[in-house]
Amino acid sequence: MKLKLDLHPIYNRGGEIDRALREIIDEAIRKKATEVEIIPGKGSGQLKKKVLRFLDQKEIKALYHRIDKDSKNHGRLFVYFRHK
Per-residue DSSP letters for 12-34? Predict the structure, then answer.
């Protein structure tokens, strides 16, 4: 199962971005999704950096397996999960 989160509608609301990211990660764990696609968009890259900082937090990092940046579209990230 794949989940998708597009951050375009809330790109300028920091608290909502963190909340949306947390919710999609929790949903992936609940539904045992193997992949979450996060779309911060291309823009200046600030939103992507914010998403990567969020994902790099120790307690969040423990929840997923790895992150890939889309090589063809720099406005997209993939977060992969391993469920036991």
Answer: T-HHHHHHHHHHHHHHHHHHT-S
